[in-house]
Amino acid sequence: xxxxxxxxxxxxxxxxxxxxxxxxxxxxxxxxxxxxxxxxxxxxxxxxxxxxxxxxxxxxxxxxxxxxxxxxxxxxxxxxxxxxxxxxxxxxxxxxxxxxxxxxxxxxxxxxxxxxxxxxxxxxxxxxxxxxxxxxxxxxxxxxxxxxxxxxxxxxxxxxxxxxxxxxxxxxxxxxxxxxxxxxxxxxxxxxxxxxxxxxxxxxxxxxxxxxxxxxxxxxxxxxxxxxxxxxxxxxxxxxxxxxxxxxxxxxxxxxxxxxxxxxxxxxxxxxxxxxxxxxxxxxxxxxxxxxxxxxx
Length: 297
What we know:
This protein is an alpha/beta fold. It is 35% helix and 17% strand. Strands 1-6-5-4-2-3 form a 6-stranded mixed beta sheet. It comes from Kitasatospora putterlickiae.
């Protein structure tokens, strides 16, 4: 059995013969409109971050807290990040304006929020911003949003052999974006009641991950947007109460990030925002402090 950060999160490692789609359980949780709005606007704006940066920061911190409360090591969190794969800027001359749907890319990323002062984090203090900047930079370091990982892992013999020996993520994450309810009597609308987030699949298909979280922002007619998350898991590896605890912890981290973003001293740039110069996070922070004292920021 693995020890350390890659030890099984559940009761054992994922077994493709036992942990199949037919044994999957799921739980849908909804974040209210006010913190959802803060995450989509205030948090992303003041930290010059994407929604994925914010949500994955919360995943890393939530898993770390969930694990430490169970006396399990979780210094880093290995996650498979799924994306739409429409990275036109990564391939010059490609025009995707006449294509429909996702191309879907999946790549692993190891998230490390560092040592966390939990009381400060839960109060929305500077610890929340520090963790977000750290995770944001780790995600920004992935070339082309992970578009080339599949080629390196499965089609290049040299790199494929090296990558095949690395730990496999136990967690899958996918943010699907915004889904609105159309006005009027349109013929097309999301059918949330059929298949949930994950759609249909053969019951005997092995699960890709022990635990998955799929999210979207649901926009109803006349209602404020809300963040909806579907947590799904292998039934033999976790109880519903354990996953509900993890989901609630994730929401708690998101609320802490929203609270922090409303503080006047929050936010700021990180190294990936300034690609033309080589500055560390400490150097950027000192520069911003000096400019703020001079009244230029």
